[in-house]
Design brief:
Involved in the biosynthesis of tetrahydrobiopterin, an essential cofactor of aromatic amino acid hydroxylases. Catalyzes the transformation of 7,8-dihydroneopterin triphosphate into 6-pyruvoyl tetrahydropterin. The protein has four helices and five strands; from the N terminus they run βαβαβααββ. It is of the alpha+beta class.
Length: 153
């Protein structure tokens, strides 16, 4: 019997959470903040003073070798628990701007929600296993984040 080469696969799991937020840049440092008029112009109806809500769908994809014994990249029960801790507990049924400390300094756009989830999952998953976080704010608005960073200027 010849040894089999390692096979790589990607595994995805989704969750849905409900949260509200207000797109407004006053949470940033004073020098980077926008006026109320600039916020309204930039964010439109999403700048509503009372906020608005979404039913976010998050798809998390991990990648790795298929274990020859279990036949799995990762146990789905473990992934489910990691997603519960990294996504559902901090975000579900929350006001992102008021209940999640991260968003006291970062505008709660879907892009930044994806980064928040990525960072939380990175702390829990084995190194190098997280491949992609996809956050669907609506059926039409989807953000995909793969951990990319930009060079600080």
């Amino acid at each position: 019997m010849s040894p089999r080469s390692a096979r790589l696969a990607r595994l995805s799991r989704s969750v849905t959470f409900s949260a509200c937020h207000r797109l407004h840049s006053s949470c940033l440092s004073h020098s980077e903040s926008l006026s109320d008029e600039e916020n309204l112009k930039l964010f439109g109806k999403c700048n509503n003073a009372n906020g608005h809500g979404h039913n976010y769908k998050v798809v998390v994809t991990v990648r790795g070798e298929i274990d020859p014994v279990s036949g799995m990249v990762m146990n789905l029960t473990d992934l489910k628990e990691f997603m519960q801790e990294a996504i559902m507990e901090p975000l579900d049924h929350k006001n992102l701007d008021k209940d999640v400390p991260y968003f006291s300094e970062v505008v709660s756009t879907t892009e930044n929600v994806a980064v928040f989830i990525w960072d939380n999952l990175q702390k829990l998953l084995p190194q190098g296993m997280l491949y992609k976080v996809e956050v669907q704010e609506t059926e039409q608005n989807v953000v995909v984040y793969k951990g990319e960073e930009t060079i600080v200027k």
